[in-house]
């Protein structure tokens, strides 16, 4: 066959016969899209009353019927990726929120980034002036330890609270 006479008819026939595009490419692209939609739907369903909940199949079917079919054929994979996304996304938002809150905190010295910087500068000054054996150095070290433990407790509480609030509808 001469390439000048090529009309694309053969490729259309092979596409229709073997479904290459719908099987390979659509599945590879469709699973992450379906997982992202399922993650969003699961988080939404976790925080709203039951009467406002959505079904992932309905939303995917509204976007593209092929996506809904990919979801039906690969539901286990999509749910696994959705679960991972449901842990990472809310946890990342909680961590980012705590960092923003810490950066803008005023008046709470143990919680803010500025307070941590001031504590470490005080420890350095006490060490340089009197050494490790001084009571000022030891006092500042214990104050820093308590502040660090307090920050870790707040972070863990917020992270756990966000996960409990958003993981209700995940498998």
Descriptive notes:
It is a single chain. The chain is mainly alpha-helical. Helix content is 79%, strand content 0%. It is built from seven helices and no strands. Helix 5 packs antiparallel against helix 7 (135-166). Residues 1-12 have low confidence and may be disordered.
Order of helices and strands: HHHHHHH
Poorly predicted segments: 1-12
Sheet with most strands:
none
> Which structural class is indicated by helix and strand composition?
mainly alpha
**Radius of gyration (Å):** 27 Å
Number of helices: 7
Give the total of beta strands. Answer: 0
Mean pLDDT: 82
Distance between the termini: 55 Å
Helical content (DSSP H or I, runs of 4+) = over 70%
Shape: elongated
Instruction: Give the DSSP E fraction (strand runs of 2 or more residues).
Output: under 5%
């Amino acid at each position: 066959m001469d390439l000048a006479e090529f009309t694309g008819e053969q490729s259309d026939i092979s596409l229709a016969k073997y479904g290459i595009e719908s099987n390979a490419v659509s599945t590879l692209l469709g699973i992450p899209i379906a997982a992202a939609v399922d993650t969003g739907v699961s988080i939404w369903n976790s925080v709203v009353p039951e009467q406002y909940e959505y079904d992932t199949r309905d939303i995917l079917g509204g976007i593209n019927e092929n996506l809904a079919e990919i979801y039906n054929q690969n539901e286990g994979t999509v749910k696994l990726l959705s679960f991972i996304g449901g842990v990472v996304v809310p946890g990342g938002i909680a961590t980012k929120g705590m960092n923003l809150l810490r950066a803008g905190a005023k008046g709470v010295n143990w919680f803010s980034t500025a307070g941590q910087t001031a504590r470490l500068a005080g420890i350095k000054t006490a060490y340089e002036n009197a050494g490790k054996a001084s009571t000022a150095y030891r006092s500042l070290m214990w104050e820093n330890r308590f502040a660090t433990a307090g920050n870790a407790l707040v972070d863990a509480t917020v992270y756990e609270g966000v996960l409990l609030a958003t993981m209700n509808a995940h498998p």
